[in-house]
Design a protein that fits this description.
With 115 residues, the protein is mainly beta. The chain has no helices and eleven strands.
């Protein structure tokens, strides 16, 4: 099963930007879709963004217009560009690789946004 490794998290001030990366050990096209989720303390994991095999993207309303998901096929890497960050974006961000037969998850990367 392909492994997913996230990187790029950190501490940033409100209004700032971060770019998260998710590197897959195998071909990302082995997944039907790649996505990003996040989990804040005391809350359930929530969907943030998705990019399907054909390049269609979807976003949660809370991040639409601020976050952008993209991929580099040659590097088997998916990115999440996060702009205009808000304190409520603070969470652990997880990469997800979806297949109808089951999903793969990364270990998560912490994002903290200070006010």
């Amino acid at each position: 099963q392909a492994q997913l490794v996230e990187s790029g998290g950190g501490l940033v001030q409100a209004g700032g930007s971060l770019r998260l990366s998710c590197a897959a050990s195998g071909n990302i096209f082995s997944f039907n879709a790649m996505g990003w989720y996040r989990q804040a303390p005391g809350k359930q994991r929530e969907f943030i963004a998705r990019i399907t095999r054909d390049g269609t993207t979807n976003y949660a309303d809370s991040v639409k217009g601020r976050f952008t998901i993209s991929r580099d096929n040659a590097k088997n890497t998916v990115y999440l560009q996060m702009n205009s960050l808000k304190p409520e974006d603070t969470a652990v961000y997880y990469c997800n690789g979806f297949r109808f037969s089951g999903s793969s998850w990364g270990q998560g990367t912490q994002v903290a946004v200070s006010s």
